[in-house]
Amino acid sequence: MPKITGAKVIVTCPGRNFVTLKIETADGVHGIGDATLNGRELSVVSYLNDHVIPCLIGRDAHQIEDIWQFLYRGAYWRRGPVTMSAIAAVDTALWDIKAKIAGLPLYQLLGGASRTGVMVYGHANGSTVDETIAEALRYQAMGYKAIRLQSGVPGLPSTYGVSKDKLFYEPADAALPTENVWSSAKYLPTVPKLFEAAREALGWDIHLLHDAHHRLTPIEAARLGKDLEPYRPFWIEDVTPAENQASFRLIRQHTTTPLAVGEVFNSIWDAKQLIDEQLIDYIRTTIVHAGGISHLRRIAHLAEINNVRTGFHGATDLSPACMGAALHFDLWVPNFGIQEYMRHTPETDEVFPHAYTFADGYLHPGEAPGHGVDIDEDLAARYPYRPASLPVNRLEDGSMYNW
Ligand code: CS2
Ligand code: MG
User: Fold this and answer.
1) Contact 21, 61 (CB under 8 A)
2) What is the assigned CATH class of domain 4-105?
């Protein structure tokens, strides 16, 4: 049996911080898992080093489910982003090992390919509608079938999703949280104008998406959904904070615009009512933050019987190790919807050599055994950790708000 002989946490910062767990076995086979939690990286590093790795040594790496149950039930203080990211990293590394020993790409162990490729969406953003449309045309020319549109809001100095450099959007922009200003009243009239211009410029044979990033009340979200119906968005995302899952009933009553939520969820319990009651159309939970492949399969199966499709988060702050594993999952999962694909920097891609490839709006995980992503430890060591926090938001009157 592939006994776990060692495990280490590798922290590297090739443009942004990434945390990677590497598990080694007596067979000489290793596996890696992403453990990156943007702005809270060192909490997961400590959780893995202090509370997880000592329990792994000597165990059978093939016993993925038993190790998952041990780490979940054994935590006592169940769930939460730090715990579930640590469990996710172990789970992903063990699936990587199992597939490598089997000599198969991971998707084969999950059930084989259900499609020829994984449709992805890119991020077009700009400080004005015109700038955003110009970016979107660039993505359309690159072959994307789906594009997320985020533009600046007149009267606000900055807003979510509008990056300084186009391809690489990194919100964790300072050691301590920078303070942004928000106004839903200023924001709400701008999105319909953005989508009207986008349909005018890009036509109808392309999926258009938008992320409201937790900033609306349910009735404001209903307003946005109704206003966008003429432009047929693929989805609007995180329209309101989802702690109160029942609040999505109110949104559902008013609009047919598809809803996506879940990138901040870390377990099935965060989404169970939303999925059971079909209050959403896409679930965005990720392998790195929702307990790994083993738990995400449970979420995907619950979603499948409730007409909810997957639409995994895939921002720059999820490492290539998460992207690689996600693509194997996406290739297999029957109720696949779409995969977010925010490109990584060339330095990041060098630190994480990977088998996945992009062509004509689709990603494919490749046929390498395992999830097809590794880490170059020597290169990783050249990029030391750099403290970085996500911003916070205040309303114009100074009230703390959602970022
Ligand atoms: C965003 C992310 O990609 C998305 O949909 O919500 O950019 C998110 O802001 C970051 O992942 C936070 O670290
Ligand atoms: Mg989002």
Assistant:
1) no
2) alpha beta
